[in-house]
Amino acid sequence: MLEKLADLDAQHAVAVAGGGERYVERHHARGKLLARERIELLLDPGSAFLELSPLAGWGSDFTVGASVVTGIGVIEGVECMITANDPTVKGGASNPWTVKKIFRASQIAEENRLPTVALVESGGADLPTQKEIFIPGGKLFRDITRSSAAKVPTVALVFGNSTAGGAYVPGMSDYTVMVREQAKVFLGGPPLVKMATGEESDDESLGGAEMHARTSGLADYLAEDERDAIRIGRRIVARLNWRKFGVSGGVPAQPGTLSPRDRCNGHTVTDSPTQSYAEPEADAEGLLDLIPTDLKEPFDPREVIARIADGRSASNGAVFDEFKPLYGASLVTGWARIHGHPVGILANAQGVLFSEEAQKATQFIQLANQVDTPLLFLHNTTGYMVGKDYEQGGIIKHGAQMINAVSNSTVPHISVLMGASYGAGNYGMNGRAFDPRFLFTWPNAKSAVMGPAQLAGVLSIVARAAAEAKGRDYDEEGDAGMRAMVEQMIEEQSLPYALSGMLYDDGVIDPRDTRTVLGICLSVIANRPVVGTDRFGVFRT
Question: What DSSP letter does each residue of 36-64 carry, written as one string?
């Protein structure tokens, strides 16, 4: 695991390097800060920053990180979604992975009611790939305006170019700050204006910060330099009068006791968990030894839970209250708290999901919705069990019940891929297709339709049967080569970097950081009320 973590650090270093040393030095020589330096100054001192999708674009032709930094941080005590263009990568131009990464950040902000602060310095779209950007890219502007309509503020701090479609980011944000002699916001720069109208113009008169502050009115604040813009941005957030609408014990508010701003879906307001908590009793370092190198080997997820859940305290009598411990033993379910936040946990123990596990999960998900409690899915599954006895026993029906419950559950879900996440087990355990609020991966995890060896074996069996049906001799040497090639291909496609590069997770994390990451996510989730559904689809019996 330490070797995998060292490799993960190296992959993250590529993303942090942005456009490379040459372009970083050029940017600093202009007196400008880097994207992450701007973020660091923006955040409250000593507070955490949960970076999202840092490996976006990994394995593609584009720079790892997709020329933008996104993540969740605390500004003046308010949890915010932060996006920052990286101008060292092609001037911050947006490529197809940039668009997808920003869309994911917007989705998280919308689902968790997070104000957004955009640190803008971008040359617009990467023109060679405009056909993949232009049409879907309009969703970015729709998301900004819908956030404003939902009374979730958007703030744009403009440090440099914000041209063409990018001009609408400050144009549609609720608050816009521009840096004097640096920010340039226009639909078309001087060359385009010259080509389109014949008009001669310069950057400042066409879209400079001072012009927008004094003449067009697009800039609400004119900053003297980058640090001043960040200072102003922090003061804007401080004046938002922001409150979290998380449920306090699930107790409905009494009519007339709260103002409309204090009331949200009939639930009382709380800024933090009402109960204190203790740190886990087991050391997080032990997580590095828990996961076997061979994902076929089972491990006890209770050992993981003991290292991420709150320890015993006066208000929390047990670390983990297991539900149905003697039934469906391949899936561990139960209740715990993480940083004081109540959670229901579903964790794969032995890998395979049988009918008993699926039925147990279905009931547990219903119970979590009944008591308005978020769900945490810890993946290590090879999928649902196959075979004649299991088919006759109703594995399809029971797996469908579990997937039905996951699909229609309305409490927030968080998923962590600890090991294997194969086949329909990925669906039943709330994989990316089922829109968990957050999904993170450990560096040893793998996800695919099935394991590499199994997939190659299935293809071999099908090919052998086809040859026999045609009365042909089977090429055993060719079969061995095919199986080796397929296994290698599936192995590469199953790696967490490849999946993270395609934004199938929100980041590959060090297992020892799991508790901290989950604590941030659960705190963010509390910006909205947690309300479970009382309606599910038809369960086959």
Answer: HHHHHHHSPTT--EEEE-TTTTTTSSSPT
Residues shown for the chain:
541
Q: Nearest 5°: phi and psi at 532?
A: -80, 155
Cβ atoms 288, 2 nearer than 8 A = yes
Whole-number Å distance between alpha carbons of 76 and 222 = 21
- Asked if residue 345 lies in contact with residue 376, where contact means CB atoms within 8 angstroms, the answer is yes
The token pair that represents 58 in the structure block: 């990994």
11, two tokens: 């992959």
Coil/strand/helix, residue 248: coil
d(CA 122, CA 91): 6
The amino acid at 196:
A
| Longest distance between any two alpha carbons in the chain, whole Å | 84
Per-residue exposure over 419-453, b if at least 16 CB sit within 10 Å of its own CB, e if not: bbbbbbbbbbbbbbebebbbbbbbbbbbbbebbbe
Alpha-carbon span 396 to 494, nearest angstrom: 25
pLDDT tops 50 at residue 271: no
SS3 347: strand
* β-bridge mates for residue 448, sequence order: 422
- Tens of pLDDT, residue by residue over 279-333, are 998 999 999 998 887 777 888 999 999 999 999 875 666 789 999 999 999 999 9
Q: Which residues contact 520 (CB under 8 A, 6 or more apart)?
A: 48, 50, 72
Question: Which ranges of 151-225 does DSSP label H, i.e. alpha helix?
Answer: 168-172, 190-197, 203-207, 209-211
CA distance 413 to 253: 25
**Neighbouring-strand partners of residue 161:** 184
DSSP line for 313-326: BTTB--S-EEESTT
Helices assigned H by DSSP within 267-386: 287-290, 301-308, 355-370
Whether the CB-CB separation of 520 and 308 falls below 8 Å is answered with no
229 token code pair: 């813009």
Give CA–CA dist 505/496, Å, rounded: 9
The tokens for 131 are 């056909």
The pLDDT of residue 266: 35
Alpha helices in 216-300 (DSSP H): 226-238, 287-290
